[in-house]
Structures are given as structure tokens and as C-alpha cells.
Amino acid sequence: MAYGISTYAYFWRISSRAPEPMSLPDMLRDTAELGGEVFQICDYAPVESCDRAELADLRATAGDLGLTLELGTRGIRPGHLLKYLDTAGELGVTLVRSMLNTADHRPGTAEAVALLKEAVPRYAAAGVTLGLETYEQVATDDLVDVVRAVDDPHLGIVLDPGNSVARLERPADVVAATAPHVVNIHVKDFAFTRRDGWVGFTYAGCPLGEGLLDYDAMIAAVGPEERGVNQIVEHWLPWQDEGYDATARLEHQWTQHSINTLLRSE
């Protein structure tokens, strides 16, 4: 088990709002400086256009920094998953996170099982685990049913209990349902705050330990240390009214706080 950081922890610093967006090597160096051991390149489109030499350089940079790499994408069409499996091989990655749906493909449970039964054996043969993330577009029970039906130890669940709140699923219920199948954990805290005039709520991220995530209960249920499940820091940091510099500074502070909190929990 190791602690790491995702590209989602650099959401604003790699966005079009950044005067000079951070590169992957920038993020790798920052992760190492903060004490992370893993870097998850998650939903980061530029990695798909890297050639073999660029991937080799990225792998070498991670190795020099003592970092393990993970990948993240969306969708379960076999062609797409096998493309990411090739990239995983070039980067020395053994965990790929995905989601069932994409913008143009929303498979039902039966179709998802069929597609995954086509791709997952190739992952297993390569020694790579595929993890499907919990999120609001798919009922957690359906996601668990898919994983159970495929029935391969190289297919599991990436647990992010905050995502499913938008489906009116309680984080504790999501943790309980998925715990036996978890292969990766996204660690981010979240909270509701009243909007001006008490008209509705805003649901957004907050510093780890200050929101609704029951981190201790989640860890007790999953047992990541015993099972070798990595914990990856992410954020839902809202854009700050003061502008980019304030947003980037706070994003860094949240990441540093999260990693420090996780390291102290050992």
C-alpha cells in the first residue's frame, strides 16, 4: 500500500486558466517533494498522444523520483481499454482506473459484462488490474454486479464515496457495498454549505478531515494496507474569487495537507 497524488489534485494548475500549465514532469516532481509515492495520470488526455520515446522518458523520470505510476481513463470499449493497456506496459503501470460511461457510450449491465469479459483477460495476462470507479452515473449496486459477473481478480473497484452522493447514495453505504472489491482509493473530502439566503446548498470539496468523509471507517472496511491498495489524493476545489494565484496556492495547500494527514495516519 502506498500514498499518492492524482492529476485531479492539480486540476486548476493544469487547466486553461493557468498562465503556464504544469507538465507531467512538473507534477511528478511536486508529488515526490510532497512525500507521495504514487502518481496517477487520470483523465489526462495529453498522455494519449505521447509516443514511445516520450512514455519512456516519463517512466524514467518517475523512476528517478522513486514514484510508481498509475493510469486513469473513461470507457470500457475493448479497443480503448487495450490501447491503455499498451500505454500501461510502456509506463510500467499495473493499475488502470476507468468508468463505465463515456459521452457517447452508456452500456447497461449486461453489455458492460460482455465488453469487460473481452478485455479483462488481456489485462490479467499482462499483470495489470482494471478498476472501475464509483460515481453518480452508475448505481453502486450495478457496478458491484458487473465486477462480480466478470469474476476476475484483475477487475475491481476504485472507491470514491463522495462521487455517489449526487445519486443520493450515502458514502457509508457505498463503502460497505464495494469494500471487498476495492483495488484503489481516491481520497478526497467533501461537504455541503448553504448558499446565500439559505436557498439550496453547494456540494464541494474541503480539506481532508474537515468534511463528511469518514476516512477511518472507510479504511477499516477496506483494509488497504493488508491488501496492497493504494490511496490517491484528489480534490474538488472550487475556483477562488481572488483569481488564479489564490486558487493555485490553495490547491497546493490542500494537497500538502492531504498527504501529510495520510502519512500521519500510518
Architecture overview:
With 266 residues, the protein is an alpha/beta fold. The protein has one domain (3-264): Divalent-metal-dependent TIM barrel enzymes (TIM Barrel, Alpha-Beta Barrel), CATH 3.20.20. 41% of the residues lie in helices and 19% in strands. The chain has helices at residues 24-34, 52-65, 78-91, 109-126, 140-150, 171-178, 215-222, 224-227, 244-264, and strands spanning 3-6, 38-42, 68-72, 95-98, 129-133, 155-159, 182-187, 189-194, 201-206, 230-233. It has an eight-stranded parallel barrel with strand order 1-2-3-4-5-6-7-10, surrounded by seven helices. A two-stranded antiparallel sheet has the order 8-9. Helix 1 links the parallel strand 1 and strand 2 (38-42). 41% of the residues are buried. The mean pLDDT is 97.
The CATH class name reads: Alpha Beta
Shape: globular
**Helix segment count?**
9
Q: How many domains, in number, for the residues?
A: 1
What fraction, in percent, of the residue positions are helical? 40-55%
Weakly predicted, low-confidence segments: none
Question: How confident is the prediction overall: mean pLDDT?
Answer: 97
Compute the number of strand runs: 10
Question: What is the CA-atom radius of gyration, in angstroms?
Answer: 18 Å
Roughly what fraction of the amino acids lie in strands? 15-25%
CATH architecture assignment name: Alpha-Beta Barrel
Instruction: Summarize the main sheet.
Output: 8 strands, parallel, barrel
- The helix/strand series, from N terminus to C terminus, equals EHEHEHEHEHEHEEEHHEH
What is the terminal-to-terminal distance? 11 Å
Provide the CATH superfamily: Divalent-metal-dependent TIM barrel enzymes
**Widest sheet: strand ordering:** 1-2-3-4-5-6-7-10
CATH topology: TIM Barrel
Classify the secondary structure makeup into a structural class. alpha/beta
